[in-house]
Amino acid sequence: MASNAIKHYDCYLNPSKLLAVKESNRHNILEAMVNLAKFLGTYEEYKVKLKNYGIKWTSADTAFNGFLSVFSKQHNTLPQYIKDIQPHLTASERVFVKFLALSGLRMNEAVTSFNMIIRLNNEGKLGEYYNIELNVLEHFKHKIFLHKTKNAYISFVSQQLINEICSSQPITYSAIHSRFARRNIKLRLKELRSYHNSYLRKNGVISELIDILAGRVPRNVFCRHYLGEDLKVLGKSVLAIESELEKTLLTY
Question: What is the pTM for the complete model shown?
Answer without folding.
Answer: 0.69
